């Protein structure tokens, strides 16, 4: 990419003044940041054009009704979105469940106990555990809680420790011990708890002092709602999303503050701005938060620091992964769509998945698919299917030779991933969950074997979201 | 299909057209009515006004008469009785419902004659469904009261108690005459056997959907067309419909269901599965029949979509009224 500063949408060049002001930055990012909208240059809206137009005859038969007067103030910009995204994590009317075990370091260690036949013997296996306050704050900072998960029904956030969750915890612990990078994709039918499995991994990681980095909704990376800029002198051309990266750094910094405050910068980095040496990583990230232009170089330096010796392991998670398995809505200079793997944040995840990058101190990269309004990526679906078949020792499904929509880059990124297929919970797990609901005063029903069996069967053999829908949501 | 309000001259034609009784039987009845109502004697039916005159034996044969054979003396025994006035064939002609009265008398006679025959124990007699009152009314063309018809039914029920091996042919004929054309009690549903893998098969229909369900002892897992209940049916109500037979009998954690459904929409498929699972469950546990019947898992819902009519937008909807 040349250093042309023409934005294709607004066809304007950045003013001379701004380029002079940011001459310091321009040493690194020479090209101007692209803007996805050019509202300032849009023609002014024409209002109040109610009069009869020339040459247009009005019909006498149907009279236009006068629109009702708008009363009340329209919501402020962003107010509706804030309301939609509001996550309520506590309900003071719910009964507090007595002797609820917290998911802390001790519990996580205890989870892994097994007996001779390979069954988990921990007292919290198959039971509901509470999330400690610090973990809740961290999880909220990385936007792990979603509005549709029903957190607002209970006194405090808590999780069911199902068998797959213990398996996952086990692999995380072994990754930290052996300093390897676990690569995992969580797949399953709608409502089987894929996002909550991510949440469990994050909570377990926080409990063990890991650094957790999360993309709560991969759609934000591809939907062309944040600004983007090319990275000069890259071949093939790579792109950054400065504002997104900056807010991402803020989330990382907030969520892992206790951990990052204790870690000091040790390396020398080639950064476009001068950074005081020996500051904590938390303080270092704050620099990237305040300056969007340097957010990505700061993250790169942060990544290097985290891969230095004696750093805590890292957990990278991403939800609704199929969004990043294809083209984005962003366009390059030739007005072609940009592939999502050309964006550096997505590229980091994909390099981790393909094994091109490893975490030196161990860690895991986990992605969850989504079954609600997410695009289909046939390459990812095939990779997941083949991974499941490989794990089961079955014959692999071949690619469809008549299909053109396979994505080579996705194929190569997901060549040898591990897949965790989630389905319904067992009846014992469903029962302990329903007992927790009953103890919280949310499920006002006797919980016995008959009722558990009924709800379990109606929920498609224990699909946990459907059990919740059936038992807790109002039936209309 | 009542014809009892029609004038007597029209009744018979209408009966032919719309009576549920077989045609041959109707015709028989019509001839009977005629004869019973108006006959004096079969030979005199040709002309009511001028019956033949008998001149008796003492009359001499005229000589060189017009006829070669001449008048032959008619034998008294051969000659039918001549009534000076019209006599009804049945004494019940003067009752309000002569045909009904005749029928009742015939049955009463039969009962009187055969009341000494041995009978079967109550409950062991063959189950019969008699013609309904409306059908009987149409058949005889008289305004028969329900209480009157009940008398006939009572006698028929009593006659039905006669031991089948000793049933006289005329009683059997009388019973057959009053039997419904289709005996609902003869329709015994086939029960699917439990196969060597412990499965039973049930089939069900609803609207345009058909379903088959294999039920086997298990832990309450359900698969419909290879999908779980949650994947197969979005509505919770539909899911409940599928397992309703198991749920209403408290067997939801005792059996597994593997089902195929096709045709129609989601509601149709779900409710076809209700029937299929109910029947398959009944094959495992026949004692559940009353409970399943009460839960509505054995009754086919016959309702179908109502047809569209000409002049209507849909089945009932009329186009909006427009001035001019």
Indicate the topology.
The complex is a heterodimer of chains A (476) and B (324).
Chain A: H1 16-21, H2 23-26, H3 79-85, H4 105-111, E1 128-130, H5 133-141, E2 158-160, H6 163-178, E3 181-188, H7 194-207, E4 211-215, H8 219-222, E5 229-231, E6 238-240, H9 242-255, H10 257-261, H11 281-290, H12 295-306, E7 314-318, E8 327-331, E9 337-339, H13 344-354, E10 363-368, H14 378-392, H15 408-413, E11 418-422, H16 427-439, H17 449-458, H18 464-471
Parallel strand pairs in A: 3-10, 3-11, 4-7, 7-10
Antiparallel strand pairs in A: 1-2, 5-6, 8-9
Chain B: H1 8-18, H2 23-38, H3 98-114, H4 133-140, H5 146-160, H6 169-178, E1 199-206, E2 209-217, E3 222-224, E4 227-228, H7 229-232, H8 236-242, H9 244-248, E5 255-262, H10 266-284, H11 289-295
Parallel strand pairs in B: 3-5
Antiparallel strand pairs in B: 1-2, 2-5, 3-4
Helix pairs in contact in B: 3-5, 8-10
In short:
The complex is a heterodimer of chains A (476) and B (324). Chain A has 476 residues and is α/β, with parallel strands linked by helices.
Task: Describe this structure as you would to a colleague.
The complex is a heterodimer of chains A (476) and B (324). In chain A, the strands form four sheets. A five-stranded parallel beta sheet of chain A has the order 4-7-10-3-11, sandwiched between helices. In chain A, strands 1-2 form a two-stranded antiparallel sheet. Among the domains of chain A are: 179-422, Rossmann fold, CATH 3.40.50; 427-473, no CATH class. Helices cover 36% and strands 10% of the residues of chain A. With 476 residues, chain A is α/β, with parallel strands linked by helices. The longest helix of chain A has 16 residues, at 163-178. By secondary structure, chain B is an alpha+beta fold. Chain B has eleven helices and five strands; from the N terminus they run H-H-H-H-H-H-E-E-E-E-H-H-H-E-H-H. Mean pLDDT of chain B is 83; it is low at 9-47 and 64-71.
């Amino acid at each position: 990419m040349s250093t042309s500063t023409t934005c294709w949408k607004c066809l304007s060049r950045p003013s001379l003044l701004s380029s002079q002001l940011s001459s310091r930055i321009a040493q690194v990012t020479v090209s101007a940041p692209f803007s996805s909208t050019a509202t300032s240059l849009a023609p002014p809206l024409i209002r109040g054009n109610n009069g009869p137009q020339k040459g247009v005859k009005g019909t006498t038969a149907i009279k236009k009704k006068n629109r009702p007067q708008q009363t009340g103030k329209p919501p402020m910009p962003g107010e509706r979105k804030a309301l939609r995204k509001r996550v309520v994590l506590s309900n003071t009317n719910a009964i507090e469940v007595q002797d609820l075990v917290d998911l802390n370091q001790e519990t996580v260690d205890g989870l892994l106990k097994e007996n001779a036949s390979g069954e988990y013997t921990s007292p919290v296996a198959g039971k509901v555990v509470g999330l400690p306050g610090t973990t809740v704050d961290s999880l909220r900072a990385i936007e792990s809680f979603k509005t549709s998960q029903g957190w607002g029904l209970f006194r405090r956030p808590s999780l069911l420790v199902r068998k797959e969750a213990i398996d996952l915890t086990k692999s995380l612990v072994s990754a930290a011990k052996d300093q390897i990078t676990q690569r995992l994709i969580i797949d399953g039918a709608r409502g089987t708890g894929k996002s909550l499995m991510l949440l469990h991994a994050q909570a377990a990681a926080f409990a063990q002092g890991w650094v957790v980095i999360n993309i709560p909704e991969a759609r934000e990376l591809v939907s062309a709602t944040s600004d983007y800029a090319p990275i000069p002198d890259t071949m093939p051309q790579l792109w950054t999303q400065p504002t997104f990266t900056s807010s991402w750094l803020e989330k990382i910094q907030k969520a892992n503050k206790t951990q990052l405050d204790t870690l000091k910068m040790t390396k020398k980095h080639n950064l476009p701005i001068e950074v005081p040496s020996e500051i904590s990583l938390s303080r270092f990230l704050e620099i990237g938060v305040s300056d969007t232009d340097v957010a990505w170089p700061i993250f790169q330096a942060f990544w290097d620091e985290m891969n230095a010796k004696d750093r805590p392991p890292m957990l990278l998670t991403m939800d609704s992964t199929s969004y990043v398995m294809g083209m984005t809505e962003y366009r390059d200079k030739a007005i072609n769509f940009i592939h999502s793997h050309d964006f550096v944040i997505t590229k980091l995840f994909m390099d981790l998945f393909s094994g091109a990058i490893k975490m030196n101190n161990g860690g895991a990269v986990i992605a969850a698919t989504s079954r609600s309004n997410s695009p289909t990526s046939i390459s990812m679906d095939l990779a997941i299917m083949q991974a499941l078949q490989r794990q089961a020792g079955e014959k692999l499904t071949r690619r469809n030779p008549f299909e053109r929509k396979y994505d080579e880059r996705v194929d190569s990124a997901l060549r040898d991933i591990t897949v965790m297929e989630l389905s319904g919970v067992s009846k014992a797990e469903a029962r302990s969950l329903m007992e927790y609901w009953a103890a919280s005063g949310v499920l006002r029903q006797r919980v016995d074997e008959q009722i558990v069996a009924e709800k379990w069967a109606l929920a498609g053999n224990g699909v946990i979201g459907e059990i919740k829908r059936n038992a807790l949501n109002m039936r209309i | 299909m009542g014809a009892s309000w029609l004038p007597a001259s029209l009744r018979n034609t209408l009966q032919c057209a719309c009576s549920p009784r077989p045609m041959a039987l109707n015709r028989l009845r019509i001839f009977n009515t005629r004869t019973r109502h108006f006959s004096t004697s079969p030979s005199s039916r040709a002309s009511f006004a001028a019956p033949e005159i008998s001149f008796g034996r003492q009359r001499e044969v005229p000589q060189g008469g017009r006829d070669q054979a001449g008048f032959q003396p008619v034998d008294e025994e051969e000659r039918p009785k001549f009534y000076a006035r019209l006599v009804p064939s049945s004494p019940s002609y003067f009752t309000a419902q002569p045909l009904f009265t005749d029928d009742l008398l015939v049955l009463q006679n039969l009962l009187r004659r055969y009341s000494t025959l041995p009978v079967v124990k109550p409950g062991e007699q063959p189950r019969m469904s008699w013609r309904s009152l409306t059908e009987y009314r149409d058949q005889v063309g008289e305004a028969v009261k329900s209480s009157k018809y009940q008398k006939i039914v009572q006698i028929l029920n009593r006659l039905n108690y006669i031991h089948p091996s000793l049933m006289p042919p005329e009683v059997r004929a009388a019973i057959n005459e009053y039997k419904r054309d289709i005996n609902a009690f003869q329709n015994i549903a086939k029960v699917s056997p439990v196969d060597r893998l412990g499965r039973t098969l049930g089939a069900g229909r609803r609207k345009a959907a058909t379903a088959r369900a294999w039920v086997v002892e298990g832990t309450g897992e359900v698969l419909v067309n290879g999908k779980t209940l949650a994947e197969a049916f979005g509505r919770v109500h539909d899911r409940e419909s599928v397992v309703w037979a198991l749920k209403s009998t408290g067997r939801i954690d005792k059996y597994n269901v593997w089902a195929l459904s096709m045709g129609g929409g989601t509601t149709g498929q779900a409710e076809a599965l209700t029937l299929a699972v109910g029947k398959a469950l009944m094959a495992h546990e026949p004692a559940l029949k009353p409970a399943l019947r009460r839960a509505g898992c054995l009754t086919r819902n016959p309702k179908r979509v109502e047809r569209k009519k000409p002049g209507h937008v849909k089945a009932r909807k009329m186009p909006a009224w427009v001035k001019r």
